[in-house]
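subagent[fold] <- orchestrator: predict structure for attached chain, return tokens only, no commentary.
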Amino acid sequence: MSRIPIDPDSDVVEEHFAIIYAPRRHRDRFPENCVEIVDSEQAAREKAALSDKSYAARVVGPSRSSEGFRLYYLEQWLD
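subagent[fold] -> orchestrator:
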């Protein structure tokens, strides 16, 4: 279950497949500049395999933080 509720009547916060740049995988939320949204799980896996410190994931977002940043929340690593 996601930390961010998804409103079925809105498309502001959605679930996405993504590539996340992360030196270590111990966080569960990432700023938008570390997240690249891709079209499919397969695309995420293929692109992550080509780069160092980038990982395929399923994320929810973007959501605005209290500091005004747009964040994506990790749902699942795809490896």
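orchestrator: received. Logging for downstream: Residues 56 and 79 are 7 Å apart (CA to CA). The chain has a mean pLDDT of 87.
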